[in-house]
Fold each of these.
Amino acid sequence: MNVRRSAAVLAAAAVIGGATPAVAADSSPSPSVAIPAGLYGRTDPTYDGVWRQSLALLAQNTVGVRPASSAIGWLTGQQCANGAFAAFRADTTKPCDAKLMVDTNSTAAAVQALAALGNHTPVTAKSVAWLKSVQNADGGWGYSPGGASDANSTAVVVGALSATGEQPQNVVKGGKSPYDALLKLALPCTGDGAGAFAYQPDKKGALLANADATAAAVVAALGKGLGGAAANPDSEGLTCKGPAADAGQAARNGTTYLARELTGTGHLTSSLPGAEDQPDYGNTADAVVALATAGQSEVAAPAVHWLQTNSAKWAQQAGPAAYAQLILAATAVSADPRHFGSQDLVALLNATGPGPVYVPTAAPSASADAKGGTAAAEDSSGPGTAVWIAGGVLLVVIVAVGFMLFGRGRNKQS
């Protein structure tokens, strides 16, 4: 897909029985609902508001940016009393009712973002309790409570559990853990799609390889969340061994599949009907995160180069979720998201929402102290305004006193 699929869009597609649509581009016509203050992006948030907000906050935190309180407050304000999140609540003054379609994906993504930011334990604990309450008997999760388990939903919930200090293997229903559910969706090492994960079994019970599901499942099988985590090189290399007896081997098999799919072009292709020959930028970024998390950053290098060269137009059209995905992919392989091809991904993401409180002046991986960032008042008059105000203040100080000692940006990871 053009953007890592919004779970709400998936659900809507399932309800109407049609093809999964792409998430709306950021240059689309005016949305049918008003864009709330604090929300990233200017497109209709009905199907992806919480998802894109969560990815944006998670990516900003990864590079040491402290977002505006209005951005965080918008996300926490979307939570229902029972701990669940819907894709978007236009009126949060009204309590959630049975008509509101809450879902596991929005809830788990919000948990990951708020856990990374820190100081939101009451919110995240309530959400995790709700997620546990809707776990399926096979150990996994579907998009909607009670829906059949799928690899993507199970994966994003595993990320939420890990982010809040839970041990996913110990979160069981009917004696089954999330890893049991993922193993049931792992393809064997022979035949089409060898080593991959399926999203769900098809109507006949067959497992069909799905690159999006595979990237998500690999990261989850390794106990990580949406941003993954760079790992030391895998000494066992790219070898599919099956049937996979545990989550670790299933992750290695899935990594082998992703590496094979990226060979030659350096990118994945779309699975949307009529667009099968088109590059899939979002899933390629997710594959980079999965490879890095599996200790295969070198194997991901061609895909990183392809994204650096080709993703600018796509990201501009797709908006904050796309910039967030690219930032997470870049940081997973220790690339600089501020110099990602022709793009400063950090500045571009920041510009889609309220001005951040703090923006480091250097990549957070550099040695740094807390004084090196660009600070500004929260909730300035427009996206990115805080950065420009701080830059103007800095110039005045330089002219007035003749010097300014800069620290470098700090590495902030809650």
Amino acid sequence: MNVLKHMEAVFIAAALIAVPVGYLAKVSDANANAFTASSAAIASGAKVATVTVTAKRLSNAEKSQLLALDTVTAASRL
């Protein structure tokens, strides 16, 4: 009878346990699949795509100029 009084608390406690466990299980499955696929590609001798990004670094003046421009643009959208 006491459980019926506190059913809302029991439901919230069950949800607080079930949601993260379900998320972690899904994430670990995705990581396992990605690891298996990349391992299979390497084991078969296939070339793995590599991306190299080259760009010049912004100076502090350029960074502040871009930040000011972004602030003005964001203010105009309001």
